[in-house]
Every structure is written in C-alpha cells, then in structure tokens.
C-alpha cells in the first residue's frame, strides 16, 4: 500500500507547505478508500493460532480421568473455591497464597462484576453501608484504562474519577490525595502489569503506596486486575510487587481484591478465572457466590491443571504465545516508526507485554482519525473508549490491538492508520 512519507515535523511546516501536504495526503487517502478494505484493529483477543496452542485441552481430562488430587470427583457438585491443584499452580503466578485463591468460572470480568454488584448491594467487609447507586460511592480510574471496568461502574451508578497514568502506574500523589480526603472514594481500578492499554508495569513504590496510603473510606478496595501477569512480549519476565503482602504489612490486609484468568493463556472463552484476597474477603465473596452456584466447572479446572502442569508449564506455554505475538507487535512498531517518527503527529507506547499499543495523536484528533480509518474500512476502538463515560477530555488516545489479525492484514491496517493520523493532523493544523 502506498503511504505518503511525511517525515518532517508537521508543526514546522508553513501554511503553504501544509496545504500542499494536505492535497498529497488526500490523494493517498482517496486511493486507500478505493481499496474497500475490511480490517479490524479493535479486538484484544488471541488469534486462532494462539488458541491452537491449547488445542490439546479439548481432549482433556479424557474419559476415566475425573478425580482431583485430593480425591474430589470433579464431575459432581461442590468445591466452591475451585480445585486445589490449579490454585497451587496459579498462586505463585498471581502472588496469592493458594489457600487464599479462588478458582471459579471462565471470566475474571465476571468476578469483578460479582464483587462490584455485591459491594453495591451489601457492602464489603468493613463497610458501614453498601456502595449502592445514589450512595455517592466513587472509584478512581487510572486513564487511559480498560473500558469494561468503566462500563461496569457506569452501569451500577458508581461515580468514576479519572487519575492520570504515568510511567510507574497511576499518579500516586493524586490517588493518595483523593483517597484521603473523600470517604465516598471506595476504590481504584488497577491493571498492574502491562496495563491495558499503556503497557505500564507498576513500580514497587506505587504498589507499596497504594497498599499503605491513608483512605477516608474504611472499606476502600484496590481492584487489582492482573490480567497480564504472565503475558510477556520480551525475554524479561517483569515482576510487580506483591500487593497482598504489602497491604498486610501496612495493616490493610483487606484492601486488595486480586483478579486473574487463563483467558489469554489457554482458551479465551473457556478458561478459568481467579480471585485472591484476605480470608475475610474470600469468605465474603464465596458467601455470595454460594447463593448462585453450588460450585464451578471443576472438570474444566482439572483439564487446565493437567494441561499446564505447573507454574513453569504456564511460563513455557506463554513463551509459545510470545513467539506468535512478538512479530505482530514488532510490525506495528516498525510501521509506526517508518510512517510517523519525526512528524510530531503521534507518539505511542512500546509495550513489553500485554495486548495493546496506546497511541497519542495531536490533541483534538483522535475521533477524526478513527472516523477517517472507519471510512477507509479500518475498524479502530472508538476514540474515548479507554476513559470513563467514553470521554477522552483531550480527544487524543487511540488503543491498538495487534493480536488478532494475520500479519498481512495488520500491516495494511497500520499503513492505513498512519495515513489517517497524518491527514487528521494536517487538517487540524490548518484549522
Ligand atoms: N481485564 C483486562 C485488563 C483485560 O484487558 C481483559 C480482556 O481484555 C479482561 C480483564 C477480561 O478478562 P476475562 O477474560 O478473564 O474476563
């Protein structure tokens, strides 16, 4: 695909030069539109090749294999906390003692939803009243962040207060100030490793600060969504400080709710999700879960334990994902650099894990870029999606998800995106 290579800084061009560049870019854009592409960069989901890595699961545990290590017949009811052998595998990966880890259904988002709904209906341990709609309950939302966290709060009428992310996690001073001064602030969403969408790895200082800070609310919770705990894109397996231990040491053992899942390890639709927390929190959640089910799908948990084997087995499996994902992320970086570096039209993250690249275009241009791309047959996540209520105050951030499309499609999609970013940028500068 021909991409007009504007490599000079757009902001340094004269008005005449910008006008000429605009004509050139419009010509290239018309050509792009003429190709009637149908490409998609919205989906943060594993490709078919990644799912194939876990195909063996479909034959497990196999007829005749249904007994767990402790003698539990996995085919039967019960075992609300999940199979011990699977909790033993994931305990160290999520930094939760296996005895405080629950292995539940197929989705960690479901467990976050459970926690929020029960907090809204009944409160959490330590609450003086439920976080009900109309109670004024609010949560801190590091931005840009994960849209589904925000959609959940919006549905429940829990107010969202954005807090900017920096290279070490959420702006700690701002979080400390907001949590200390307002008892309505009940919690914070955190994706501590390879954050969605910025790829940030929280520093130890941030983790300790969040665990130890003074909160006006006695029932403050950190929603520690460790969705990308083992999802490395480089050979460095980045570590994040142990939030449960830090909270325990600081005298706030009930503060963290830890979440994780195998959605992007085994099968995104048929994995196993985890919840880890203090004993009183685990009793609280399982008390509520026990009213809606007699137990989780332990056959699925058994086949996961058999397939993955150990924490090392999980790491080895994630190396196979990395071999498939890394070339796609490298391709995106190469295309963005070739097309945009030096233009001043965008900056972007270089994640070392996770599923996303976060792109900042010129202020006021993100919606225009998304609209131009859509018209050219390239679907992008809606501008604003990584912000509470879908509103990016600067109209600047675009989330890219390179995992799903085949490399050739990804390549065409990023070429087209680069062109749309330049076109929107020049239009903006001429306004
Ligand atoms: N949390 C984050 C940060 C995610 O990015 C995603 C999926 O993209 C999820 C949770 C969903 O997890 P699950 O499949 O376990 O519900």
Automatic annotation (TrEMBL):
Pfam families linked to this entry: Asp_aminotransf
InterPro entries: AspAT_Ic (IPR024551), PyrdxlP-dep_Trfase (IPR015424), PyrdxlP-dep_Trfase_major (IPR015421), PyrdxlP-dep_Trfase_small (IPR015422)
Record key words, sorted: Antibiotic biosynthesis, DNA-binding
This protein's record includes keyword Transcription: no
Entry superkingdom: Bacteria
A GO MF label: DNA binding
Signal peptide as annotated in the record: none
Keyword DNA-binding: yes
UniProt-listed GO biological process terms: antibiotic biosynthetic process
Coiled coil: none
Name of the molecule in the record: DNA-binding transcriptional MocR family regulator
Gene source species: Amycolatopsis cihanbeyliensis
Organism lineage: Bacteria, Bacillati, Actinomycetota, Actinomycetes, Pseudonocardiales
